[in-house]
Amino acid sequence: MNTSKELNLLNQKIVYDFTKFTTTDYTNELSCVVWFSSCNLRCAYCYNDNIVKSKQGEYSSNDILNFLSSRIGLLSAVVLSGGEALMYDLVPFCKEIKKMGFKIKLDTNATYPKRLKELISLNLIDFVSIDFKAPKSKYKLVTKKDSYEKTIKSIKYLIDINFPFELRTTVNTNLLNENDINEIIETISCIDYNNVYYIQNFLQTKSNLGNITQNRDLNRDLIKKDILKIEFRDTI
């Protein structure tokens, strides 16, 4: 039985939209992607500018749960994305998703370590993808917020408990260069991250938060590949 607080959270319209089916957002899983409204960061390259700027969603968590109830046995997982999903208390929502038997992947900027820890401690998520926005020297320039240490805290926590997760960085060379990426590689290696580090190309769309374009491609030959396993993704 849900409490009145949980029922209220489930009825809030915090979901901007949802993708009913994807095979690419969660490896080896047939998934639905839930796009949560708004974000606490303002990354210039962000192509989800409409989601980031939105103050309220079109759907409630209950709306998504109703859809998922019709996909039991057809889908295997739910991806929580945005925007920034951890801006919200996701515990009641995730509990209901888990009751249906779905796996849960969280896409996050990792700036809410307490909420991340709560979800994991309750066994409510199965995998985390963290957008490592920039090295410390450029974090505020890229995101417009000073949340670098919170991101590091989240990553260290996941490493300490041996939780399955990945780190990825989206690169627009107007903002980040090869030296910046190498700085990130050195940083995450020093805190004992030993999974694949994904470098993603900036995706040019009709609009983005900073109204920017890509001025040149990243020179992959200048990226340190002897410290960690590096994989390049052409698109997000």
Mean pLDDT: 95
Q: What's the Cα radius of gyration?
A: 18 Å
Summarize the main sheet: 8 strands, mixed
Derived structural class:
alpha/beta
Number of strands: 8
Give descriptors for this structure:
single chain; alpha/beta; 8-stranded mixed β-sheet; 8 helices; 8 strands; 20% strand
Write a structural description.
With about 240 residues, the chain is an alpha/beta fold. About 30% of the residues lie in helices and about 20% in strands. It has eight helices and eight strands. The protein has helices at about 5-10, 50-55, 60-70, 90-100, 115-120, 140-145, 150-160, 180-190, and strands at about 15-20, 30-35, 75-80, 105-110, 125-130, 165-170, 195-200, 230-235. The chain has an eight-stranded mixed sheet with strand order 1-2-3-4-5-6-7-8, with helices on one face. It is globular. The model has no long low-confidence stretch (mean pLDDT about 95).
Note the topology.
Elements: H1 4-11, E1 15-22, E2 31-36, H2 49-53, H3 61-69, E3 77-82, H4 91-99, E4 103-108, H5 113-121, E5 127-131, H6 139-143, H7 148-160, E6 165-171, H8 178-190, E7 197-201, E8 230-233
Parallel strand pairs: 2-3, 3-4, 4-5, 5-6, 6-7, 7-8
Antiparallel strand pairs: 1-2
Helix pairs in contact: 5-7
